[in-house]
Amino acid sequence: MNDPIKVLIVDDALFMRKAISEILQSDNRLNVVGTARDGLDGLEKIKTLAPDVVTLDIDMPRMDGLAAIRHIMIESPVPVVVLSSLFSDGAVTFEALRLGVVDFVPKPSGGISENIEKSRRQIVDRVKIASSVNFSNIRRVRMQADAPSEDLAMRHDALPLEYLVTLGTSLSGPNTVIRLLTRLSPTLPAAMVVVQEIAPQILPAFVKKFNEHVPWSIAMARDGQVLEQGVCYVCSNTQSVSIDRNESDQPCIRLSAMVEKPLNLLFSTAAEIFKHNAIGVLLTGIGDDGADGFARIRDNRGNTIAQDSQCCVYPNLTHNAIERGTVGMIVDETQLPDAIAATMS
Hints:
By secondary structure, the chain is of the alpha/beta class. It has 2 domains: about 5-130, Response regulator (Rossmann fold, 3-Layer(aba) Sandwich), CATH 3.40.50.2300; about 155-340, Methylesterase CheB, C-terminal domain (Rossmann fold), CATH 3.40.50.180. About 35% of the residues lie in helices and about 20% in strands. It has helices at about 15-25, 40-50, 65-75, 90-100, 115-130, 175-185, 205-210, 260-275, 290-300, 315-325, 335-340, and strands at about 5-10, 30-35, 55, 80-85, 105, 165-170, 190-195, 215-220, 230-235, 240-245, 250-255, 280, 305, 330. Strands 8-9-7-6-12-13-14 form a 7-stranded parallel beta sheet, sandwiched between helices. A 5-stranded parallel beta sheet has the order 2-1-3-4-5, with helices on both faces. A two-stranded antiparallel ribbon has the order 10-11. Residues about 145-155 have low confidence and may be disordered.
């Protein structure tokens, strides 16, 4: 039997430390080895207790959560799951995910209440999954100090739309997506649709802040949206996304209820609409979604690209597609921008 997963809880509220501890201790695979009242206290206890996972609040005195994450990643690297009520603050959610936290989970409101119980399973699952992360592959994204210098209002819809890049990822994916969009030229004759694992409450603020830091125009995916060149449409995997044509025969996005394998749906419908100009990209993630959709893209002579499993935070998604033989190109994360661009040359 595997040893219990050791967890350190960092939160300035005593009642929340107690509530989260009770949630985690309800699962026999998890062992809360300690609690800390702020970032400084947390850093000291990480060094003495050597937890496998840290849950971390953001709004704390002395040293807040973002400062703590920066120190943790350098001084005492350990997987971090953020539990915070600041999910509507785009600067906070974007920065935490950029710095490499495993996930950002909205903290249940109302103290020890039914809200916490409703979130129990999500919190337990996230901590368990975080313990299995390939931590050596987690890296912060280095950003420009200021927004891109070009006129952001003119950065998209400048070229005809010829290609569609569909990108799928799950846990820890937002960090890789941020890095990719900082390096991929928005002048490609393409739009991008991204399905990733991110809480829907977080998504609007995350997208708004993301849009300020990359040359692509970043937008939340909305039902019926017509696809435009130079725009990246982002959606949580709590909804399903498919590609369709509207009454004017324009390629557009369709949103519907969550399905078991949303990446297969995204890739296969992209193949139907864009044929050989459909490009599928699989990044880090858990599960076996995406391989069947990749097969549809290949059947239509489109291109399929997978991040090398050895450089994934979680290798399952890409490894499964590679094993199934539906991946046309396997590349290191640093090679992804050039690989995507090469499919359009």
